[in-house]
Amino acid sequence: MDLSLKDFLDKKVLEFNQPDFIPNDPISIPHQFSKQEDIEIMGFFASILAWGQRRTIINKCNELIERMDHAPHDFILHHQDQDLKSLLGFKHRTFNDTDLLYFIGFFKQHYTRFSSLEDAFLQGSQLGEPFQVETALNHFKSYFFSLPDFPLRTRKHVSSPAQKSSCKRLNMFLRWMVRKDNAGVDFGIWKNIDAKDLICPCDVHVERVAKKFGLMQSDKVNWKSAVELTENLRSLDPLDPVKYDFALFGLGVVGEL
């Protein structure tokens, strides 16, 4: 890989991976909390709802926090049926209250059994085998929809590599939870998944800039192209390839190219 490209992207990572990145990005939502379960829950919601303008996404997530009395984990574990009325009418794009109620049901059963959402992504790994994001995400979707009578319409909100999806939102969520550095943007609160194994989230900004740099050749954005991009980023930094998400996304957003 061209060393001049690595030097340029490394500088852009340092430029965009800063605390002032947080307020205008959906990652600001989990940054409102200090309790790990709240960070996980609202990080998951913020990533799943990340469609459209970032300001709208942030506003809708703040609305959801308010509907859950500013204590998502406590609300999920201890709500009574009548408390769920506060969630009715919630909507963002094609995500509605039917989907939201199922998400709440899943989180309740999961956190009744486990202390962290990380366990939901580890269950697909065989003991002693290295963690693979593709296996984890495919298993996660099956696990997420393992509750009886899940709404069929809700399945479209949780993607998987088996569908050939790039899984942009879930890969973004994993980056938030797993990556740890001194910049303070990503949380790094999960310890059983390594940053070197993550797959780069591919949104329209990342795709456009990656193609300009020859880091992605595929015409379609799917799981295969996300893996292709990540493999090229691993040639720049094998231990932390998805840190370049900051550079590619940032360059795309500011229109520097």
What would your notes on this structure say?
The chain is mostly helical and 257 residues long. The chain has helices at 3-16, 36-48, 54-67, 72-78, 97-113, 118-122, 133-144, 168-178, 204-212, 223-234, 244-254, and strands at residues 91-92, 95-96. A two-stranded antiparallel sheet has the order 1-2. The chain is globular, with a radius of gyration of 18 Å. The chain starts with a helix and ends with a helix.
**Sheet having the most strands:** 2 strands, antiparallel
Helix content: 40-55%
Average pLDDT confidence is 95
Q: By helix and strand content, what is the structural category?
A: mainly alpha
Oligomer: single chain
Strand percentage: under 5%
Quantity of strands, as a count: 2
Shape: globular
- SSE order in H/E notation? HHHHEEHHHHHHH
Number of helices: 11
Regions with little confidence, pLDDT below 50 for 5+ residues: none
What's the alpha carbon Rg, rounded to whole Å? 18 Å
* Distance between the amino and carboxyl termini: 20 Å
Brief overview, please?
By secondary structure, the chain is mostly helical. The protein has helices spanning 3-16, 36-48, 54-67, 72-78, 97-113, 118-122, 133-144, 168-178, 204-212, 223-234, 244-254, and strands spanning 91-92, 95-96.
Tag the structure with descriptive keywords:
mainly alpha; 11 helices; 2% strand; 257 residues; 49% helix
Topology at a glance:
Layout lengths: L2 H14 L19 H13 L5 H14 L4 H7 L12 E2 L2 E2 H17 L4 H5 L10 H12 L23 H11 L25 H9 L10 H12 L9 H11 L3
Antiparallel strand pairs: 1-2
Helix pairs in contact: 1-11, 2-8, 9-11
